[in-house]
Design brief:
Length: 232
Amino acid sequence: MVIDSYDKLSHMITYSKANLSEIVVSYVKNKILTGELKSGDRLVETDMSEELQISRAPIREALRELNMRGILTFSPKKGSQILEMGYEDIIEVFSIRIPLEMQTLTIIFEKSLLKEQDLDYLEALNENMIKPERDSDIEDKEKTFVLNTSDMAFHKFFWEKSGSFRRAEILENQYFQLLIAMNQDLSTLGSMKEKFAEHKAIIEACRTGSLEKTLSAFQAHMDSYLKAVTKL
């Protein structure tokens, strides 16, 4: 069940991992996925150490990694903080993300990599995303988490299906950069119903076997975000 996965991730008690810094990386990413961390927010090592009950050494290591991924910045005066993103920065990231993601879709179609079971999987993923919309007992941050993790899983499927792992790595980092900016106003993420409909249009286009229709459906999906970020 979706909410079970949120429960496990929300506290990042994944101590079976040997590398504690991975827990911290997941912790920060999870806070972004729930909408709790946004552009410009500070990360305090002592607070994180107390909350996660681990020493500050792996926290520093994780913060360095997140800095390298372009999710955090560091300055002697402010310490570590979530990357500050203005409107022009957001538009620039979209201008990089959209062509890259279109390239992965093109590779998939040119190599005929999509199978019927892949599309069935995407349908199930899309249905899973909208389930919390019907449950009034679920907290808003949990709904945001499900929306974002499902959306990322949907797009990540295409990134990885293409076999272009360099593009996939770049796209994942850019996905988080966009999220931290859009977390300033969660309405820019769109509603579950809207994203469900947009994803469904992409799946239906894929089922036709037409790259042109699929790229058009994907562009419409991105255009909805581009229109929304004008609020920021």
